[in-house]
Amino acid sequence: MPIVEARGLTKIYGSGDTSVTALDHVDMSVEQGEFVAVMGPSGCGKSTLLNLVGGLDRPTSGQVLIDGVDIATMSDQKITELRRRKLGFVFQFFNLIPVLDAAENAALPLTLDGKSLSEATRRAGEWLGKVGLSDRIHSRPDQLSGGQQQRVAVARALITDPALILADEPTGNLDSKSADEIADLLKQTADEWGRAVVIVTHDARIAAHARRIIFMRDGLIVDDVRVDGEDPSAAARAAMEKAGLL
Fold first, then answer.
1. Among 40, 64, 188, 216, which lies 20 to 30 A Cα-Cα from 27?
2. Contact status, residue 211 vs residue 34, Cβ threshold 8 Å
3. What is the C-alpha to C-alpha distance for residues 9 and 24, in angstroms, rounded to an integer?
4. Rounded distance, CA 197 to CA 186, Å?
5. Cβ(65)–Cβ(11) under 8 Å?
6. Residue 97: CB partners within 8 Å, gap ≥ 6?
7. Percent of the residues in the chain that have a pLDDT greater than 70, as a whole number
8. Do 171 and 179 contact (CB within 8 A), yes or no?
9. H/E element holding 188?
10. What count of other Cβ atoms lies within 10 Å of the Cβ of residue 244?
11. Which CATH number applies to 4-98+156-242?
12. Does residue 36 contact residue 211 with C-beta atoms inside 8 Å?
């Protein structure tokens, strides 16, 4: 069974002559341990798809199934609990709390879910070590580089052992070296730690780290390409051509 499955997923904003179809009967599934990139021009529906899959917005019609359960039928409280326990989110601008150090930021999902401070802090230390920040656990965000802050955000997303990580332009605010490091970390998240990862990106070079690249245009999925085993630079070129960037 797929970790996440979208069936006929549609999102329409507004009504009548002013309505805008952001997503138009989209079907998609992602298996455990898959790393999937979603690409396409601005306004094609990439972020809308991610928001619906993550329960941050509700569809106009269609279904989103997480572990076989349709989240569109859940109450707001149940969706909040699902997001906290089964989904991890990584955003472009890190969204770290400035007055908390790296360990406190990473531990936040557990403390919000009622876990003891000692347990949350222990697991935060473990995950910060896994993402390469064992020596910065007591550093505040303003004492970390952009790439390090995003590593804290990845640790925060992983600390609840979610089945699915959703990343919206996670490298868009980073230099190219840090961007590649975060893309490699997300690939490791799928390959070594067995999480499904869906990343929205404009950067074909980053998308080439994924196992699949889904291309969107005008609210539709227009292609779904597997890049397993391909040379990353060749995959990047193919992705750029497919996305109309070359």
1. 188
2. yes
3. 7
4. 7
5. no
6. 104, 105, 108, 141
7. 92
8. yes
9. helix 176-191
10. 11
11. 3.40.50.300
12. yes
Single-letter amino acid, residue 210: A
Q: From the CB of residue 154, how many other CB atoms can be counted at a distance below 10 Å?
A: 27
pLDDT the model gives residue 170: 93
CA angle centred on 26, ends 34 and 54, rounded to 5°: 55
Q: Can you spell out the DSSP letters for 101-163?
A: -HHHHHHHHHHHTT--HHHHHHHHHHHHHHTT-TT-TT--GGGS-HHHHHHHHHHHHHTT--S
Cα separation, 44 vs 218, whole angstroms:
5
d(CA 233, CA 26): 29
Determine the pLDDT at residue 37: 94
Q: Please state whether beta strands 4-13 and 20-30 pair in parallel, antiparallel, or not at all (unpaired).
A: antiparallel
pLDDT at residue 112 in the model: 87
- What is the token pair recorded at 108? 């936040």
As given in the structure block, the two tokens for residue 12 are 């329409």
pTM of the model: 0.90
The pLDDT, as a whole number, for residue 15 is: 84
Q: E strand or H helix at 81, and its extent?
A: helix 76-86
Q: What pLDDT, in 10s, does the model give residues 69-111?
A: 898 888 888 888 888 888 999 998 889 999 999 999 999 999 9
217 phi and psi angles, rounded to 5 deg: -155, 135
Q: Which of 217, 198, 171, 230 is nearest to 29 (CA)?
A: 198
The values of phi and psi at residue 141, to 5°, are -55, -40
Q: How confident is the model at residue 59 (pLDDT cuts 50, 70, 90)?
A: very high
> What is the rounded (10 degree) CA torsion for 81, 66, 89, 55?
-70
What is the rounded distance in angstroms from the CA atom of residue 239 to the CA atom of residue 166? 20
